[in-house]
Every structure is written in structure tokens, then in C-alpha cells.
Amino acid sequence: MKLPQTVNILLLGSGGREHAFAWKIAQSPRLEKLFIAPGNAGTRSCGVNADLDPSNFPAIKQFVLNNYINLVVVGPEQPLVEGVKDYFLNDSEIRHIPVIGPSQEAARLEGSKEYAKAFMSRHGVPTAAYFTVTRDNVEEGCAFLASDQVQAPYVLKADGLAAGKGVLIINDLAEAQAELRAMLEGKFGAASKKVVIEEFLSGIEVSVFVATDGKSYKILPEAKDYKRIGEGDTGPNTGGMGAVSPVPFATPEFMEKVRTRIVEPTIRGIREEELDYTGFIFIGLMNCGGEPKVIEYNVRMGDPETEVVLPRITSDIIDLFEGIAHGTLEEKTITVTPRTAATVVCVSGGYPGEYAKELPIQGLSTATAGESGMESEGETIVFHAGTALKGGETVTAGGRVLAVTSLGDSIPAATERSYGTIEGITYEGKYCRRDIGRDLL
């Protein structure tokens, strides 16, 4: 079974990841029409923004029918965790339309840290030791923190979705115990009604991305992202301040360990447990002295990693979607440039705390991603993450505002291009880390 030769696609989401997907989809000769719901000020250069809430499934159904959509691509995790795939499969009018993304049950691999850890345990996927805490066993949780099973720094993770901010790493035992109680009392809302305490893994992180049709898989380019707000990885966690691909320490030998010890048992587990999984798996790994261990699963592509992974893929993304959707992924070929991609995220002043919105952005006209691939001048693209249009002007609309991606023959060459472009973009309170990729040199 195949998609039509030319397809109408609905892409759900509004961030930098979705702009990167829209940019890549728009390059395909197989695209008829692309709609992005709700999109942002940047995605309109790649298709048509649709004023739709990705979690309003009845409205999405009506839009899909009215616009003869052949394929739905889900960018963010929330609609997947809420069951958008199941909604389509359970409706006779739209069940024939493929959704790129897992079922609600399979999406628990991201939606619940405890579910993911138990899945890893069942299938022998190497990961950190853990203990699950609720209000009912908070004293046991405090005792576990004080036991010899974990040492400082202590890792506390909200079980549910917390927009990339539900993880605390704390050096002091008393502070960790106090934060555990605060999380269970609602520090991260419903997401931390349950908290997973984890053994701290010492090493360097890498993100591995896998496309799967539920039976076979393709490993996409890996990336390293930078989660903390401050240079030298200091300050609070954010949704991500930048990313680099490829990752120098992810050697062929290391990636073979990842494939055999982590990717293979994960896909085998999905098959054995009969999970409906047609989409992307983001595996957050720690390289512990050359040995890979899983930190977490996400059930979609990462952000800002997508902004460096997709620019390195030179093959047609609609062909990849077709393989994922119709169980023919094994037949598909993915081609990747060996060049380095680096993205630097520009954020609002005050992020990840409180920040102002609707601040005018200047300097975008010469540096925004369109349909034609990397910009010919310097091979740089500006992906919009948190932007909107107001009175015909592009304004800030989120904490992470822009992700500036460049290709180069080395990490310094790529990052230098991105920083050069950032110099020409201005808005009140603009901030970016100036050390993206430096630790990899």
C-alpha cells in the first residue's frame, strides 16, 4: 500500500521542530499541499497555517476531510499522549488516513517515566536504577535518596509531561528530599503527582533518533543538545538551547553498541508487546565511558535536535513517511550529508522563567527558511520556534523564539555561521548561549 504520488499533508504543531519538518516536507516533489496547525510566523513560508488546536481531535477530523488530507504528521508529544492516533483508527471516516506517530498506549513511553523504565527492564535495555514515589510512599522515597543505592547528585523526574522542565539534578540530600516533597505537592502540576528517583549517570549525552514502522527501523543522524540556560551547562534546564550533528564521540563502534543493545531490544519490545508504533523514537542516551545507557524515550523527534537532523537528510522525507505509515520502511533508503549542522536557539529574556511576549523581531527578512533548502548565502536557515504575526509584523510568542541552523565542514564553521546570522537579528531581551558545540572540539 502506498500514498498517492502527490500528497496533501497536515502537520500538527507550532515550534521550531515543526518549522524544520515543514521546510523539509516543502522540498519534496511529491507534495501537493501542506497545512501546519497552528504553525507560526515562519511555517507560512512552507505551506498554509491552519488555526487549529492539535488537541482538538473533532476539529482536526473535519479539517482533514474538508481538505482531502492523505497523511497527518504529529510534531509534539501532547496530541500523541492524548491519543490522536487512536482517534483516527476508531473513526470509520478517517481511519484510512495514516498518522505518523504512536498509539496512546505506546506514547506512554514518553508520557510516563515509570512506564518507560519498566519497559526497559522487561526488555533488557541498559538504563539507570530507579525508584517510583507517590504521596503514599514519600517517606520510602526520602529513605531511598538517603540509601547507598543512589549517591549525589540526585535525579528527580516528574513522571508525566512537563515540557522538558520536569527534571531536577540536586547535589544536597536534604534539598533533594525537600524538592521531592515539593514535586509531589504539585511543583510541576499533575506531571509530578508521581516522581521517579534515578541513579545519576555520569558521562556525556547524545540523542539518537529512530524511524520505525513497528517492525523494522532506520537510525537517523544523531545529535547532541544543550539543555541548560547558561554557558558551561549552568543554570536551570530549558527545552534546549542548541544542538550539533554529527556528534564526534558517537563513533561507528559506539553506534553499533547503541544499535544492538538499545535500538534492537526497543523495537523487539514494541513488536512483542504489540504496540502500535508508526513514527519516530527519540532515545536520550548517556555515553558512560564508551557504554551507552538510556536516560529516556521520547515518542517524537526532539527540539532543537530536529533542526540539525533534518537538514542533514538529503533524501525525500515523504518517501520516509510512506515507509513508516505502510510498513515498507525496510525498502526505503535514507541518505545523509557528512557535513556538520549546528543550531543556536535565541530565547526571550527571563526564559525559562517569566518573559515578555509580542516583542517585534527585526532582521529576519534576509535570513528565514523558505521552500528551497538551505539558504544559498552561507547555508543558514532561521527556524521559527516561538513567533507569531501581529499587524503584519513578526513578534515573539514563546520562551524559545528562533533556532538558527547552519551547515559547515566542521563544528566551528557551522556555529560561526549561525552566530553571524544571529548578530543581524534583534528583539528586546534576545539571549543565546555562545558556547554551542565548544565542548565537542
Give your account of this protein's structure.
With 441 residues, this protein is α+β, with helices and mostly antiparallel strands. Helix content is 26%, strand content 26%. It has twelve helices and 22 strands. The protein has helices at residues 16-26, 57-66, 77-82, 84-89, 108-111, 113-122, 138-146, 173-184, 252-272, 306-309, 317-326, 411-423, and strands at residues 7-13, 31-38, 48-49, 71-74, 99-100, 130-133, 154-158, 167-170, 195-198, 204-212, 217-219, 224-225, 228-230, 234-237, 242-245, 279-288, 291-298, 340-347, 380-384, 387-390, 393-396, 400-408. The longest helix has 21 residues, at 252-272. Residues 369-378 have low confidence and may be disordered.
Question: Can you summarize the main beta sheet?
Answer: 5 strands, parallel
Going across the biggest sheet, name each strand in turn. 3-2-1-4-5
The radius of gyration computed from the alpha-carbon positions, rounded to a whole number of angstroms, is 21 Å
Number of helices: 12
Q: Find the count of extended strands (DSSP E, 2+ residues).
A: 22
Assign a percent range to the helix content: 25-40%
Look at the structure and give the mean pLDDT: 94
Distance between the termini: 46 Å
- Which residue ranges are poorly predicted, with pLDDT under 50 across at least 5 consecutive positions? 369-378
Question: Helix- and strand-based class?
Answer: alpha+beta
Shape: globular
| Strand residues, percent | 25-35%
